[in-house]
Design a protein that fits this description.
Helices cover 29% and strands 22% of the residues. Strands 1, 2, 3, 4, 5, 16, 17, 18 and 19 form a nine-stranded mixed beta sheet that branches. Strands 9-10-13-14-15 form a five-stranded parallel beta sheet. A three-stranded parallel beta sheet has the order 6-7-8. Helix 6 runs parallel beside helix 7. The longest helix has 18 residues.
C-alpha cells in the first residue's frame, strides 16, 4: 500500500498541517513531516474532511442496471467525496431478504470505491402488507441496521408499530418515507399557488407532516429509533423540533435539492425537477436551512435517484420522480451553508456515520484514525456538465450551473479512489 504525505492542508478548517497516510490509517499529523517513501500531495488551500457518508442512495442494482449499477454509483460517490453510502431497498428484486442485501453488499466490496451498506425493506416487496425478513437481514453478512420502504410510505400504523418494536431488539432503525398516500393520489408537484396556476394535482405539505407526527408518537411509545427521510416542509421541522425536545429517538435528513430549489422550477415542465417529496416553497427552504444549522435536521442526504433516459425525458405526468445528487451534494452544501467546515463535517459525515453505525467513518483525520477522508478545494468553481458525470444517468437539476468547491482527492482506508479530481479506477 503506497503511503501518502499531504502537505499544508487544513483539517476541517483548522490551521494548515501535514498528514501522513500509511497502512490504511492517518499515521502522523504536524508541520514539516517527512516520509521519503511517500507520494507527496500539495494540500495548499485545500480542506481535509472526514469522508462523506450518505444515508440515502439509490444504486438501482439489481434490476435497473441501465440507470445505475453499484459500481457506477460508487464511482459517482467517490467523486463526490463519499467513502460510504447506504443503498436503498427499492431494487428489482426488492432488497427484502438476506440474499438480496448480501448481493448488494458484495457488489460494493468488489467495486472497492466506497463502503456500500445496504438498507433492507420494511415490508415484503415494499407492498406495506407484511414485514420483510428484518432479523435475517440484520444477521446476514451485510449486517443491516436501517430498514426503509423509501418510495413508499409504511402507511399502516399497526405495521409501523410492529416494525419499530422488532428492530428495537438489535437497536435498528426504521427510516420512513413520510407520505400519507390518500392525500397524494395523482399528485404531480407541491400543492400551492404554482400548482394551481399550472393545473397540476398538488402534493400537500400536511401529507408529510401527518405521517411524521404519527410516527414520532409511535417511536416514543415503543422507545425505538425512527429516521425521517427527505424532510421537505416547515411544518415537518416543527413536529421534529417538538419530538426532539421530548427526547424521542428520532433523526431526520434533508436533501440538497430541498435546500436550494423551489416549486417554481415546475413552471418549465422539465421533468428533471419532478421529485418525491416535491420541491416546496421559499418559506420551506428557509425553515429547512435553519433546522439544519440548529440540528433539528441531523444530516444532509442526497436521495441520489438515477433514472434511464426514457423515464425522465417524457411528459411531466409520466416521468419518474428523482434527481442525481452524489457528485454535487458538497457543492450545494457549500452554496447553502458557506465554508462552515465543522458544520458540514457534522451533517455530512460524523452524524450520518453515527446513525448508520459505520465504524471507521465520520471521524476527523487524526493519528491512528482510518484514512477515510476527502480533500476539497473551496476556491474552485465548476460548471456541471451532465455528460461528464460518472453516473449512468443524466437527470441532474444542476446542469450547466456553476457551483462552488471541487473534490480533489478521496481516500478509502488509505487507498485513493479519486486523485486530482479523477476516479483512480
Amino acid at each position: 500500500m503506497t503511503p501518502y504525505l499531504i502537505r499544508n492542508v487544513s483539517v476541517v478548517g483548522a490551521a494548515p498541517t501535514d498528514l501522513l497516510i500509511r497502512d490504511g490509517v492517518v499515521a502522523e499529523t504536524g508541520a514539516g513531516l517527512t516520509a521519503p517513501d511517500a507520494t507527496v500531495l500539495d494540500g495548499t488551500g485545500l480542506v481535509a474532511l472526514p469522508g462523506l457518508v450518505d444515508l440515502h442512495t439509490h444504486l438501482r442494482e439489481p434490476g435497473r442496471e441501465d440507470a445505475e449499477t453499484v459500481e457506477s454509483g460508487s464511482r459517482a460517490a467517490a467523486l463526490g467525496g463519499y467513502t460510504a453510502v447506504c443503498a436503498m431497498a427499492n431494487t428489482s428484486p426488492v432488497a427484502d431478504t438476506a440474499g438480496v442485501v448480501e448481493q448488494v453488499w458484495r457488489l460494493g466490496r468488489e467495486a472497492g470505491l466506497v463502503d456500500v451498506q445496504p438498507i433492507g425493506a420494511v415490508t415484503v416487496g415494499l407492498a406495506g402488507e407484511r414485514l420483510a425478513e428484518l432479523g435475517a437481514m440484520a444477521d446476514s453478512a451485510a449486517r443491516v441496521r436501517i430498514f426503509s420502504d423509501d418510495g413508499h410510505c409504511v402507511a399502516d400504523p399497526k405495521l409501523m408499530r410492529r416494525a419499530l418494536e422488532y428492530v428495537k431488539a438489535f437497536d435498528g432503525i426504521i427510516a420512513q418515507h413520510a407520505e400519507e398516500p390518500r392525500l397524494t393520489e395523482g399528485a404531480q408537484m407541491h400543492e400551492g399557488e404554482v400548482s394551481t396556476r399550472l393545473g397540476l394535482t398538488g402534493w400537500p405539505a400536511v401529507a408529510e407532516e401527518a405521517i411524521i407526527a404519527r410516527d414520532v408518537l409511535l417511536a416514543e411509545h415503543v422507545g425505538s429509533r425512527l429516521h425521517v427521510c427527505h424532510v421537505s416542509t416547515a411544518g415537518s421541522v416543527e413536529v421534529l423540533r417538538q419530538a426532539k425536545a421530548r427526547g424521542v429517538r428520532v433523526t431526520a435528513e434533508v436533501t440538497p435539492h430541498h435546500l436550494l430549489l423551489t416549486d417554481v422550477k415546475a413552471e418549465t415542465y422539465d421533468p428533471v425537477y419532478k421529485v418525491n417529496p416535491p420541491l416546496r416553497t421559499d418559506t420551506d427552504i428557509a425553515a429547512l436551512r435553519a433546522a439544519l444549522a440548529e440540528g433539528v435536521i441531523d444530516v444532509v442526504a442526497t436521495d441520489h435517484a438515477p433514472h434511464a433516459v426514457e423515464d425522465k425525458e417524457c411528459e411531466w405526468a409520466y416521468a419518474r420522480p428523482g434527481m442525481l445528487g452524489l457528485e454535487t451534494a458538497l457543492s450545494i452544501a457549500l452554496d447553502v451553508l458557506g465554508p462552515e467546515w465543522d458544520l458540514i463535517a457534522e451533517r455530512m459525515s460524523r452524524t450520518p456515520a453515527r446513525i448508520a453505525g459505520l465504524d471507521g467513518h465520520g471521524v476527523d483525520p487524526a493519528p491512528g484514525v482510518p484514512a477515510n477522508l476527502t480533500l476539497v478545494d473551496p476556491a474552485a468553481r465548476r460548471v456541471i456538465e451532465p455528460a461528464e458525470l460518472a453516473s449512468r444517468s443524466r437527470n441532474t437539476p444542476y446542469a450547466r450551473m456553476t457551483l462552488p468547491g471541487r473534490i480533489v482527492a478521496t481516500f478509502l482506508r488509505g487507498e485513493p479512489t479519486v486523485l486530482d479530481g479523477k476516479a483512480v479506477k
